[in-house]
Amino acid sequence: MNSTLITFLQGILVLGIAPFGLGLVRTVKARLQGRRGASPFLPYVSFASLFRKEMVISPYISWVFRIVPFVVFGTALFLAFVLPLLSRGGVLAPLSDFVLVAGILSLGALFLVFGGIDPGTAFGGMGASREMTIAALLEPSLIMIFATFAVVSGSSNMDAMLRIPLIQSHLFLVLPLLSFVLISLAENARYPVDNPATHLELTMVHEAMVLEYSGPYLALLEYASAIKLTVFSLLIGNFVFPMSIAPMDMSFLSIVTAVVWFCAKVIVILSLLGFLESTIAKMRFFRMQEYLSAAFFIALFGMVVALIT
Amino acid sequence: MTEHLLGFFLLGSLLGMLLASFYSLAKGSEKTAPWLMAFFSAFGAFGGFVYFWKYAGTTISLIEFDSFFGLRLSFSYLSALFFTLVCGICTLVLVYSRSYLQHYKETYHIRSVQFLTGIFIFGMQGVLLAQNSIGFLLFWEMMSMASFFLVMADRSSESIKAAFLYFIMTHLGAGALLAGFMVLGNGALSFDFSHLGEVVGTLSSGKLLLAFFLFLFGFGSKAGLVPFHVWLPEAHPQAPSHISALMSGLMLKVAVYGFVMINLSFSGLPSWAAVVVLCLGLISAIIGVIYAFLERDIKRALAYSSIENMGVVFLMLGVALYLRSIGGEAASLSLIFFVLALFHSVNHALFKTGLFLSAGTIIHAVHSRSLDAMGGLAKLFPLFSGAFLILILGASALPPFGTFFGEWGFIQNIVGLLRLSHIENTSLAILLLSLSVIAFVGGLAIFAMVRIFAFSMLGLPRSDYGHHHTKTDWISLFPILILSTALVGTGLFARPIMASFLKHIAFTDSSIGQKVGNFWFSSALLFSVLIFFVVCSYGIRRIFSNKKFERAYHPWDCGQPINATMEYTATAFSGPLRFFFRFLTRIRKSVESKPLVETNPWIRKTTFSLSIHSIWFESLYAPVGKVLLFIASKVRSLQSGRIQLYIFFVFLTLIVSLIIAL
Questions:
Q1: Per-residue model confidence (pLDDT) at position B510
Q2: Among positive and negative, which fits the CA dihedral A60, A63, A69, A72?
Q3: What is the pLDDT of residues B261-282, one digit of tens each?
Q4: Touching A: B residues 42-61, CB under 8 Å
Q5: CA separation for the pair B349, B617 (Å, rounded)
Q6: Which of A266, B460, B498, B594 is most exposed, with minimal Cβ within 10 Å?
Q7: Cross-strand partners of A246
Q8: In Å, how far is A244's CA from the nearest CA of chain B?
Q9: Could you give the 3-state DSSP secondary structure of residue A119?
Q10: Chain A touched by B444 (CB under 8 Å)
């Protein structure tokens, strides 16, 4: 009963805070650029209005185009409910195995690629080609990062991995964490891999694939990417401070503590993301293999150090 | 059902298949012969299921002849596994062939194709049941010869060239197998498999290694291990689609069966021999997946994907053999890797057969094998594209389908091994290498499979293929649906299937205890959770917005109408990866630009061509071929036409053989 409540609460909180997280990154970037920027609560209004808009659908599509938003949102919900974000010990915790999480991430990326190719436009094909290349090349890094954590902590289940303060006790685990940050930037379509605010086809990866979606479908896809951003930032926060997700019991104090930690992690890490995005430029796409190989070799180096010690 | 009855059942299936193939030679049998062969194949599959239900783990002896070269057939757990797989899938493929061949009445001589298919299936069934080397090689030859003729079934010149390449490679492999069995049997022509365990103990280590490498070459060349793989991408596309399905899905597994059966008894191998197997598997996986996403012909891409999957299987087998050879605590996990390799083979048989059958349907609809000419099929054939999607997701090793659990188990157990504290550094390096390669190949395999699905099914039709099929062809759709359901089934029942393998497959010297690796979460839970969340997202959409509120309008096109030439093609899709891997592939790009009229340099005719070449063919096989042809032309000068020289040669041979014999 306890664990079901934890999972349910975690999911509702992630769903609730995801648009705020997206808005926060944009506000921080705007302030750093000297503008006032929109309110961080604007995405709530945007998503609500998108749900009420009429959809304009290309006549060349097939049934695959229509199921894409549901599968992508479903995988985002899976990540929100299964991973240990608010507290450990959720009822779906056995499913938080890292290979499974990598597989679910690929499943989401794959269906988005189908959604880009189906309308038969060149924009969609270009975005799909780039997104699939990035998704294929970040697999080895993702597996190597979490394999390192699994070797050190003794379990491949993320819920169990975060039982002990890993990084404080084994300082070399900063390396896989750094690699994880690089991979998260690639996975969430952020600088230096992709520009989430662009309108030019040469700089689009994620945005190109959702170009033909509108109305509720677009709302689902944008919400899914906001959820993924929040989930990844919480994961990074949890690896740095695992004590923030100590198992929650049903007392009012522990619930409030967990929620406060939750909001603090989201705010701090996404503000740092906004700061990072304001300081670096987007890389040329054909240099992606250097970026992704760098991430892989950093993770490999971390694994080698873990095995030696 | 008693053991004897089961034995008669299985023998009946075998003989029935032989008789049915002869029946298919008769005039007018074209419509009924596939059903008859499918019936006998289903017989065999049913027998296999009864074996698993009641007699799992025992060995049932079917025939023991002392004359007729001492033919012995028996049914053990490993044989039963592959036999049920072969018979079950053959039933589906034969049902598919009933309608498929009717579409190609002018290209194929249907009766001989059906006959050869029956002999091919009979050969595969016999190989799985044979208990001594004579029977094994007899059925192996039958299988190879039938498939050789089937590859050139459409009698075009490329098919004949591909068939001869296949013929040469398969006979080199069969020769290696014969040599391997003779080494094991100490020169005896017939070698009984039940003596395998004792014989291996008595052989010297040099002979053991020789036999091991002969078997590796023999079974590896049939399974498509690099560098013996050159025949696979040539032969599989030229054969009719259902034969490609049988060859790629089942024949490669029969080779894996042979390798596993021999290696379950080979103890005492040095670890470097296992590392050779591992490295060959690794290289096959990488080369296979890279060419899979480069190829434009859908069947060649699927053939390279088979090479990649066989590479993964041999990588797992190599890790298993390596763990067994280093002994100690790691050796107890070696059986798990055998089981994982077998599970991956079973899944590969299911999805690869389904993919080739689907490719047959697609090629028939589009009248071309090139991915750049396809598109828009998901709109025309929704149910077929749904089944094809499930097969593609299974082929990419994505959850919740069966293949994912095999790779999941592999990564889990490697991580478990890395955690053991007293493993030496070379083993750590090898395990780390296998982990990196599996992850790398897994990501690229997803890319290759996505490309195949997206460009055959989605978007606008990239060539004008005309839509004259509106009626669903249930006979060709039904096998594909069954195979995709089976792939979902192996995902749902992954844990019981693998536990059953682990219980009944053992090394012949069971000095190694079998430790069960840490098994996993419930795949039923995963399945239900995923479905629940997808349904939830649909629910959210229904709750928050009005369902009917949409209109159709052409896509965002800057004001100019879009046509099919403007969309992305499969070649364009793999562009970035082609660029990233340009040092590994021999890609030749040429752009030629000539002015149309000499005096006007501004109006030009531009031709662009992009071609992929196989480094193996050009740097390894072609020079070897050239050297052999050179030697042959020099030797040909001996045939001068003068009879005195020939008589001299006969005399010389007689003297030399007398010297050797006496």
A1: 55
A2: negative
A3: 988 888 778 889 999 999 999 9
A4: none
A5: 27
A6: B594
A7: none
A8: 26
A9: coil
A10: yes
CA angle A247, A169, A6 (to 5 degrees): 15
CB of B521 within 8 Å of a chain A CB? The answer is: yes
The ipTM is 0.95
Tell whether A208 is within 8 A of chain B (Cβ): no
Cβ neighbours for B54, distance < 8 A, ≥ 6 positions apart: B1
Q: What is the H or E stretch that residue B596 is in?
A: strand B586-597
- The conformational region for residue B607 under phi > 0 = left, psi -120 to 50 = alpha, else beta, is beta
**Does A200 contact B at CB distance below 8 Å?**
no
The contacts of residue B347 (CB under 8 Å, 6+ apart) are B394, B402, B403, B406, B487, B490
Q: Does B458 touch chain A (CB under 8 A)?
A: yes
Interface-testing mutation among B450, B522, B557, B579, with chain A (most A C-beta atoms within 10 A): B450
Q: Given this model, what pLDDT does residue B67 score?
A: 59
| Closest in A62, A132, A285 to B447, CB measured | A132
Q: Quote the CA–CA distance of B650 and B653 in Å, as a whole number.
A: 5
Please compute the mean of the pLDDT values over residues B23-47 and round it to a whole number.
88
Q: Which residue has the tokens 């109305």?
A: A215
CB nearest to A140's CB, from B379, B439, B537: B439
Q: What is the pLDDT of residue B550?
A: 85
Whether residues B538 and A70 touch (CB distance < 8 A) is answered with: yes
A117–B455: do the CB atoms touch at under 8 Å? Answer: yes
pLDDT value of residue B435 = 94
For residue B547, the distance in angstroms to the closest alpha carbon of chain A comes to 9
Closest-CA residue of chain B to A139: B443
A67-71, A130-134, B545-549: which has the minimum mean pLDDT?
Answer: B545-549
Q: Cβ distance B314 to B280 under 8 Å?
A: yes
Mean pLDDT of B185-191: 77
The Cα B258–Cα B253 span in angstroms is: 9
Return the ∠ at Cα B165 (arms to B162 and B169), rounded to 5°: 140
B515-541 confidence digits (pLDDT tens): 555 556 678 888 888 999 999 999 888
Q: Is A10 on the interface with B (CB under 8 A)?
A: no
DSSP states along B628-656? HHHHHHHHHTT--S-HHHHHHHHHHHHHH
More confident residue, B639 or B379: B379
The secondary element (H helix, E strand) that includes residue B594 is: strand B586-597
Average pLDDT over residues A261-289: 92
Per-residue pLDDT at B518: 53
| Subunit contact B412:A99, Cβ cutoff 8 A | yes
Report the 10 Å Cβ neighbour count for B526: 26
Distance CA B133, CA B568 (A): 53
> Could you report the per-residue pLDDT of A2-15, keeping only the tens digit for each?
888 889 999 999 99
Cβ distance B132 to B191 under 8 Å? Answer: yes
Report CB contact under 8 Å: B459, A117.
yes
Using one digit for the tens of pLDDT, what is the confidence trace for B105-151? 888 888 899 999 999 999 999 999 888 888 899 999 999 999 999 99
User: A-contacting residues of B 364-393, CB under 8 Å?
Assistant: 375-376, 378-379, 382, 385-386, 389, 393
Contact yes or no for B566 and A81 at CB 8 A? no
Task: Give whole-number Cα distances, B258 to A64, B45, B150, B210, B288, in Å.
Answer: 41, 20, 23, 17, 22
The tens digit of pLDDT for each residue in A219-228 reads 999 999 999 9
In this structure, chain B runs to a length of: 662
Q: Is 0.95 topped by the overall pTM?
A: no
Which among A58, A99, A288 has CB closest to B411?
A99
* Confidence grade of residue B468 (pLDDT, cut at 50, 70, 90): low
The DSSP code sequence of B3-47 is HHHHHHHHHHHHHHHHHHHHHTTSTT-TTTHHHHHHHHHHHHHHH
